[in-house]
Amino acid sequence: MPLSEHEQRMLEQIENALYAEDPKFASNVRRRRFGGSAARRRLQAAVVFVIGLALLIGGVVVDVTVGGFPILSLIGFLVMFGAGLLALWGVGSAPAASAGESSGGDGQSRRGRNRSSRSFSERMEERFNRRFDQE
Prior knowledge:
Helix content is 86%, strand content 3%. The chain is mainly α. It has one domain (5-104). A two-stranded antiparallel sheet has the order 1-2. The two termini are 39 Å apart. The chain crosses the membrane at residues 43-62, 68-89.
């Protein structure tokens, strides 16, 4: 059941007050809320990958060739590659975008400047360390 306009305005006021009071907590809660879509995207990527693998193997078994090249296997490989890209690009985009929208305060702009001044390898190393510490 959808919310009325009055209820939506009240909810927005509560959210804005929460962001103003504790932006770190608010961004953390928002990231977790979008976690379901990342899991769903990973599952979709896994299913598409399996379909690509079946095409790859099926292309070898059926031996459909165009100009002496197994075209069905090539299509299977491209589907698998696309699934890998979907898994890699899809996971990081939704939570990062929601975190950028949610805080919008002074801390976020400072963090963005710091991120751009660091090198790619430093950011990758920091990500690796965070993941290693979580486990």
